[in-house]
């Protein structure tokens, strides 16, 4: 059995770092992992995606037929990742907006969330996350990637434990940055608890009205 994760964002958001952390944590749990990176114009804010395949997999790239989880660190890049698959089970989407080069070059406006949801969001459970605000609360805007990992852990979207991720964080970041990233992970997990409550409440309301 294989669990497929695609991470998407732009250069400078720590997409590859997040992919490495998820991969190493999964390996610590005793699972087979393959990770691949696809770089756009990453030095100029271009698209960057990382595929992490956990379990009985042989190719490094997730096939177009199905992806279990998309983690998007930027709004448009999240929907681009969803669009690239025929089926996506769940998507965690940071609501951060970073104007992509393609829009700037053609002088187009950034599309609104509602339009993106209507065009690309059908058939996928999409959870918006105010990850930028949470990262700043942790101490750095660059910690969005770790906030999103925390949210995914808290929603039980990873086939490994928080302890395994914490071990990898301690092995990844120098002491002066570790505290911020540990806080970002904790805040992401805490946010997932509030998200679960909202999901249950919305389900109850829908059941009562049906």
TrEMBL record:
Q: Any idea where the Pyruvate/ketoisovalerate oxidoreductase catalytic domain is?
A: 11-189
Q: Which Gene3D superfamilies match?
A: Pyruvate-ferredoxin oxidoreductase, PFOR, domain III
- Extract the GO molecular function terms from the UniProt entry: oxidoreductase activity, acting on the aldehyde or oxo group of donors
Keyword DNA repair attributed: no
Going by the UniProt record, its keywords in alphabetical order are: Oxidoreductase, Pyruvate
UniProt xrefs under SUPFAM superfamilies = Pyruvate-ferredoxin oxidoreductase, PFOR, domain III
Q: Which residues cross the membrane?
A: none
Look up keyword Oxidoreductase and say if it applies: yes
Instruction: Say which domain of life the source belongs to.
Output: Archaea
What is the official name of this protein in its record? Indolepyruvate oxidoreductase subunit beta
